[in-house]
């Protein structure tokens, strides 16, 4: 019975356009979607949400395709201060900040421009920062099997700034240390030292 109800609900939902859902949302918060400033808001909301969650339609392999190179290099590669924007899955409010990523190659490297794009694959979804950090590290590990990967993300969360505790100057820092960054203190400290330069962290 529940399966049939679920199917009926799903079919009914498909018959309703996304813009109709946003229009209904405006009504439920007490607005008039027909007033001058809101007439095209459902259309704009649909486009904005599609952009903000475009990571669901992005594929890691496609993003990295053609940008994995064989090299005879085994020193640390760091790309830091990568700006990212994401949406908290609990309140669907933005969180944003910077990512700092390092890896030690094991015969292959990733084209530098692809690393920020990899961040976008996972950040442009409904997320929690802890999972986002781990997903980026694991994706690099799967792509090139390096000796290790380190990811640090620092972000401001509007769900803490605009509601709830309303703390304007707090930030959240998460990290994922894989391979040699987890097992070798010297490698981890080198990464942290380089990331802290120029006032980062």
UniProtKB/TrEMBL annotation:
GO terms for molecular function: GTP binding; GTP cyclohydrolase I activity; zinc ion binding. It is an enzyme of class 3 (hydrolase). Keywords: GTP-binding, Hydrolase, Metal-binding, Nucleotide-binding, One-carbon metabolism, Zinc. Pfam families: GTP_cyclohydroI (PF01227). Its EC number is 3.5.4.16. Coiled coil: none annotated. GO terms for cellular component: cytoplasm. GO terms for biological process: one-carbon metabolic process; tetrahydrobiopterin biosynthetic process; tetrahydrofolate biosynthetic process. Pathway: Cofactor biosynthesis; 7,8-dihydroneopterin triphosphate biosynthesis; 7,8-dihydroneopterin triphosphate from GTP: step 1/1. Zn(2+) binds at residues 88, 91, 159. It catalyses: GTP + H2O = 7,8-dihydroneopterin 3'-triphosphate + formate + H(+). Residues 21-195 form the GTP cyclohydrolase I domain. Homopolymer. NCBIfam families: folE, PRK09347.1-2, PRK09347.1-3. Belongs to the GTP cyclohydrolase I family. This is GTP cyclohydrolase 1. The lineage of its organism: Bacteria, Pseudomonadati, Acidobacteriota, Terriglobia, Terriglobales.
């Amino acid at each position: 019975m529940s399966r049939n109800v679920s199917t009926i609900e799903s079919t009914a939902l498909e018959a309703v356009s996304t813009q109709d859902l946003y229009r209904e949302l405006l009504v439920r918060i007490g607005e008039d979607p027909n007033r001058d400033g809101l007439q095209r808001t459902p259309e704009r909301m649909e486009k904005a949400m599609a952009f903000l969650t475009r990571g669901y339609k992005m594929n890691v392999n496609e993003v990295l395709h053609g940008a994995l190179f064989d090299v005879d290099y085994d020193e640390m590669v760091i790309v830091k201060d990568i700006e990212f924007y994401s949406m908290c899955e609990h309140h669907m409010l933005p969180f944003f900040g910077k990512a700092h990523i390092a890896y030690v190659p094991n015969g292959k490297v990733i084209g530098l421009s692809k690393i920020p794009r990899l961040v976008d694959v996972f950040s442009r979804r409904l997320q929690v920062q802890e999972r986002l950090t781990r997903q980026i590290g694991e994706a690099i590990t799967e792509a090139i099997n390096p000796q290790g990967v380190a990811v640090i993300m620092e972000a401001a969360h509007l769900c803490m700034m605009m509601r709830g505790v309303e703390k304007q100057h707090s930030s959240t820092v998460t990290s994922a240390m894989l391979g040699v960054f987890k097992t070798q203190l010297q490698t981890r400290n080198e990464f942290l030292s380089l990331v802290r330069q120029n006032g980062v962290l």
